[in-house]
């Protein structure tokens, strides 16, 4: 609908690509809300929208597509590749890299003091827990990974393939 409050016709959030990539890359689907609380407000007084292009990639036997899994703090999830397949951990961290993950994944807390923190031992711990196994259980807690940012609700984000 037309809006007479448009103050600027050329503005973009500087973190939008990172936020969209974090929420959508490697997922079978994703949902994004065009809100200032997520992307910031690069042009005050102007209604904003998300414009993005994407390519869906179907997995093939010779080149498996990574699965991205987000596990919210205080949650436990099972990663299972099924009979005859093993987990190959590609990336993994425990902490927080943006404000969007709460909204996109529906984690139950809004306590975010920092959106730039990461446990130094997180990849090693995730790798040691799951890599090369058919099935593993991951728990996202400060007890396991330490507390890289006090007062911030954290999550594990990992990518893996089944081979």
TrEMBL record:
Q: Which organism is it from?
A: Ciona intestinalis (Transparent sea squirt)
| Listed PANTHER family | PROTEIN EVA-1
Residues in SUEL-type lectin domain copies: 1-57, 71-163
Q: Record's Gene3D superfamilies?
A: 2.60.120.740
Q: Which InterPro entries match?
A: Lectin_gal-bd_dom, Lectin_gal-bd_sf
Protein name according to UniProt: D-galactoside-specific lectin-like
Name the gene: LOC101242233
Q: Which GO terms describe its molecular function?
A: carbohydrate binding
């Amino acid at each position: 609908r037309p809006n007479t409050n448009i103050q600027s016709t050329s503005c973009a959030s500087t973190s939008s690509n990172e936020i969209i990539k974090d929420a959508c890359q490697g997922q079978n689907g994703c949902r994004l809300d065009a809100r200032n609380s997520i992307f910031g407000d690069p042009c005050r007084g102007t209604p904003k929208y998300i414009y993005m292009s994407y390519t869906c990639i179907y997995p093939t036997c010779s080149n498996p597509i990574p699965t991205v899994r987000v596990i919210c703090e205080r949650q436990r999830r099972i990663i299972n590749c099924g009979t005859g397949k093993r987990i190959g951990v590609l990336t993994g961290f425990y902490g927080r890299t943006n404000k969007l993950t709460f909204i996109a994944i529906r984690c139950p807390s809004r306590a975010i003091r920092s959106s730039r923190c990461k446990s130094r031992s997180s990849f090693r711990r995730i790798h040691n827990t799951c890599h090369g196994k058919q099935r593993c259980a991951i728990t996202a807690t400060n007890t396991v990974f330490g507390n890289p940012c006090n007062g911030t609700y954290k999550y594990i984000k990992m990518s893996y393939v089944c081979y």
